[in-house]
Amino acid sequence: MAEDIMTITPLGSGQEVGRSCHVLEFRGLTILLDCGIHPGYDGLNGLPFLDRLEPDQIDVVLITHFHLDHAASLPYLTERTNFKGRIFMTHPTKAVLRLLLGDYLRLLSMKNAKPEDVLYTEADLNSCLNKVELIDYHTTVTMDGAGLSFYALNAGHVLGACMYFLEVGGRSILYTGDYSMEDDRHLMAAEIPHQKPDLLITESTYGVQVHASRAEREARFTGTVERVVTRGGRCLIPVFALGRAQELLLILDEYWQSHPHLQDIPIWYASKLASRALRVYQTYANMMNARIRAQMDVSNPFQFQYISNLKSIDVNSFDDSGPSVVFASPGMLQSGVSRQLFDRWASNPNNGVLIAGYAVEHTLAKEIMAQPKEVVTLEGRRQPLNCLVDYVSFSAHVDFVQNRSFIQKVAPKHIVLVHGQKDEMGRLKSALMLQYKAWPEAKRPTITMPPNLQEVKLRFARRRSAKVMGRLAEQQNEAATLTAGQGVQGILVTHQFHSKIVAPEDLATYTPLRVGTIASKLHVPFAGSLVTLQVFLTEMFAGITVETTSDATIFSLDQLVQVVVGHNKQTSQQVQPVANGTAIVEWDANPQGDVLADAVISLILHAQSSAASVRMTSQPCRHYRADDPENNNNNSESNKRAKTRTDTISSRLRFIYSTLKDQFETVEAVYEGNQGVYEIQTDCGFLPADASGTKEESDKKDILKCTVTVLFDDNDVTGDRAHVAVESRDEQLANHVRDCIQTLAQATQPIPLTAHTSNDLNTIKDSKLDLVMKSEPMETISSSVTIKSEHSE
């Protein structure tokens, strides 16, 4: 059975978190799932391993959400390589991505990054985003000619985050990206698809860790912030400008409203994107949960009462003499305002840093979670780390319980784990394998956790099935019973690896195809006799109809092929019309019509050049003499018909002789008028009936004889009907001769022109010579048989 191989290759986030990018190759298609950077590396080192593939071979790129580790390499791919494919993402993802990547470029300039570390420019970013195509949740996109269709599902991770459910080559794939199964203050939980995919590519960020309850995490988060500010310290909360920041702002603003003693302590949101970010969230409030949608009808929930926006902040002149809370980006403390404030506040034990999201390896946020005694500032000097460092997860990634439950509900046949550190991913794989251990081995899904650039190859049996639709399906339903192997006749249409069988009349209903015909016409030079042409056509094909008008003679072959021969202007001396020099052959272009047309054209050419046609049309003189009795019209036509019949019978008697001569050892023929007598002698190799069986006698061979008499019917003007008599003492020889004559009669019949004449062929076969020969006494059995021969000898 034919197999298809699906290849999945992580170009990033394979046994790591960061630069999510995965290549899916199947049935000639190349699909790129996400295209992010690694926040722990600079420049080209942070890119996915794009040199693993040729960018111009990528058919489509699907971006799940706007986080940098899932989308920040996209402008590099589209503008700095020969990428020619299509790009899809949701509306909010594109809107926020324009802001985030613009801010990312601004931070690089603030950091005085090396030129080689700047992967693209603002112009590249704008050009890239202009190429993006937008997709709504639950809207299926079909790429014509590629055999790929996909739709987006809500992933719950951040505003506009989605999963992609793909169908390609008859197989289905679900790619989750980052997803969350919890309802929070502004987003809904991820959806679960109704279809069961063949392959699930899912995140494993938290491995087998289990999150505390949301109420417990919120209490710990607000309690830590309150503890820091009430002792006079400054609390730094590093976040990305968009995403989890809005959730934390909602939590803290609500907490301040319910605690009046904290309302004199300022909360700052230090981001140039603050106002624009809030406008984006207001625009796409319809994609948030019911709580936010209900609040939008009354007031804007993102217009905070106790939180102020800082469009610009000069850390050196920032007044931080009293307690305060500052949300600052970026979330990994690599550069920007959050890093500057951290360097300024890290040595004071009254201050605190609260990490509220997932911290990626090789970043300062991850480093300080280990509580080192010293850290290195942006200027390169070492300073003590005395401030409080705490971690409360609001990263909107699934934990082990949520991930396991989702996988069980989706029920894939194959699982590929991505987006997780090697140790956490390995623990998750072991836990899942332990869970499936109780299942029958044939039903257990395969589970892999490939590192970057390691291919995962999945083999799928190629499906060969087709749906019967329309009136064909109705006919099958009306049938009392359907048996295995029962045939269905229709047109097989395959589109994007899905096949259907429909009646020709239903093509326009169930497919984009239409039924049409091509009429062919060919002009063939013809200077022969119309009578000769008719003889040639009727000898070759059965069911020829002839229509003669004043202008033309029309030969029709069962409405498949038509031959139109125009007439010359007829003189008073001419009895039969004369061809005007051209025969027009017309037919509908199709395999059957083309073959028949070729045969007809050959007959037209043969009818004016073969020896038989010359003999049939030859005459001593073409000069007309009124006193010549041979030119009497009635006598002339009668004589011609008689001569033609005599020639036909003579030709067919000789044809029978040549056939018998080819089959048997000795044949002698005697012709008398309409009759031919053939005496066959053959050494058949059998002992005489009275042989004693000795070696000497076994050498004596019996020479057997058979006499065949063929008499053409005097009453048959065409010379087609003949009476055949076979005389022989040996039944086996008589059977051989009978079969030879019968096969000859069948083979020389005109060709039926339509498919429905198969029953007629059986009738013709049954009506042929049917002889039962007996050795004693000698019997003669006669039968009527139609025999035709070739025109030429």
TrEMBL record:
<dbReference type="InterPro" id="IPR036866">
    <property type="entry name" value="RibonucZ/Hydroxyglut_hydro"/>
</dbReference>
<dbReference type="GO" id="GO:0004534">
    <property type="term" value="F:5'-3' RNA exonuclease activity"/>
</dbReference>
<feature type="domain" description="Metallo-beta-lactamase">
    <location>
        <begin position="18"/>
        <end position="234"/>
    </location>
</feature>
<dbReference type="Pfam" id="PF10996">
    <property type="entry name" value="Beta-Casp"/>
</dbReference>
<dbReference type="InterPro" id="IPR021718">
    <property type="entry name" value="CPSF73-100_C"/>
</dbReference>
<dbReference type="InterPro" id="IPR011108">
    <property type="entry name" value="RMMBL"/>
</dbReference>
<dbReference type="InterPro" id="IPR050698">
    <property type="entry name" value="MBL"/>
</dbReference>
<keyword id="KW-0539">Nucleus</keyword>
<feature type="domain" description="Pre-mRNA 3'-end-processing endonuclease polyadenylation factor C-term">
    <location>
        <begin position="484"/>
        <end position="751"/>
    </location>
</feature>
<dbReference type="GO" id="GO:0006398">
    <property type="term" value="P:mRNA 3'-end processing by stem-loop binding and cleavage"/>
</dbReference>
<keyword id="KW-0378">Hydrolase</keyword>
<keyword id="KW-0507">mRNA processing</keyword>
<protein>
    <recommendedName>
        <fullName>Cleavage and polyadenylation specificity factor subunit 3</fullName>
    </recommendedName>
</protein>
<keyword id="KW-0540">Nuclease</keyword>
<feature type="domain" description="Beta-Casp">
    <location>
        <begin position="245"/>
        <end position="368"/>
    </location>
</feature>
<feature type="region of interest" description="Disordered">
    <location>
        <begin position="617"/>
        <end position="645"/>
    </location>
</feature>
<dbReference type="Pfam" id="PF07521">
    <property type="entry name" value="RMMBL"/>
</dbReference>
<dbReference type="GO" id="GO:0005847">
    <property type="term" value="C:mRNA cleavage and polyadenylation specificity factor complex"/>
</dbReference>
<dbReference type="Pfam" id="PF11718">
    <property type="entry name" value="CPSF73-100_C"/>
</dbReference>
<dbReference type="GO" id="GO:0004521">
    <property type="term" value="F:RNA endonuclease activity"/>
</dbReference>
<dbReference type="Pfam" id="PF16661">
    <property type="entry name" value="Lactamase_B_6"/>
</dbReference>
<dbReference type="InterPro" id="IPR001279">
    <property type="entry name" value="Metallo-B-lactamas"/>
</dbReference>
<dbReference type="InterPro" id="IPR022712">
    <property type="entry name" value="Beta_Casp"/>
</dbReference>
<dbReference type="GO" id="GO:0003723">
    <property type="term" value="F:RNA binding"/>
</dbReference>
